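Annex B. Sample input.
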Amino acid sequence: MTTVESPASTPDTAPDVLFRRWLAVIAMAVGTFALVTVESIPVGLLPLIGGALDVSEGTAGLMVTVPGLVASLTAPLLPVLIRRLDRRVVLLGLIVLMVAANALSALAYDFAVLLASRFLVGISIGGFWALAAGLAVRLVPQRHVPRAVSIVFGGATAANVLGVPAGTLIGGLASWRLAFVAVGALGIVVLLALLFLLPPLPAEHPVLPRTLARQFRNPVVRAGVLATFLLVSGHYAAFTYVSPILQDVSGLGEGTVSPLLLGFGVAGILGNFLAGAAGERRIRATVITISVTLGVVLAAFPLLGRTPAGGIALLIAWGLAFGGVPVSVQTWILNSAPDSAEAATALNTSLFNLAIALGALFGGIVANNTAVSAVLLLGAALTLLTSTALWSTRRA
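Annex B, continued. Sample output.
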């Protein structure tokens, strides 16, 4: 992402200009919606894709691991590589890459080709996330920065409401290949909107390798990226296998997974805005509350989620807790490095996606070698560690 603009570069306050730029913020939110949907859509389609391409559910989980690993490398490297290149051009190129990757996913004739397409998805995700919310900050007046950031991250949360459930529904009713086609079509819409709405966004302070390295000397930034890693890896270790969890642990039918993921996402949107409001006042307490809540819900699932009613209740609580994670950890990063926001955010984005990859990977190992319910305990352990990581920042 990028640094908060100085007053000299604040967008023109003319109503028509502001309106157009708020539309650009919304377009970037739709972009994050599309990319998070692309990244997470295999979660609801693991049994279908695994069966069609003759791989186990644990192996199919690599469709989440691969783009996460690639995105974690792309996020810090892209801002360095593009240097002074216009960020508008970069965003458009990343959306084009996402559309092409989804076309390849839809046409994949074996699992190796599908993983290759997911590699390309990882590049687009890492680059877009590293830039988008920070660029939204450049489009609006200073007093509206928190709202712009919340809107962009709200697109990610909304992906759990509509994107993943819709992909699961399309895959169940028609074909998992058609689900990838649908997300690619949405990417074309985003591309056209950004092409029309985004003004030129030249780089003001190119990110250098030493700028990235300097962030690790900031103890508050270190704690923030560690919290991001623990929360996200814990969530994805379990959430990647939410479909078999709901069916095997809670006894719910396959046809109920899509609407239940819709409920998960609605709760996540509510959690996003609640955490955003709370984080403006007490960000440390907000992140700790989220970590404890998420850990308790995951730990309780194997015991209290063994009935349909219990599973549904805990799934909604899970969505409410995790919905607040992206906006709260990003607020933490922006507060801890106001003069190096692009570099700090690139590192945070890198750890976010690395956590997705490793969470899904180790969740797959646990699921293949023990029972699918064991991934819930792994997720609980990781998320509860977040409070320990943040305790060291109480004086700072």
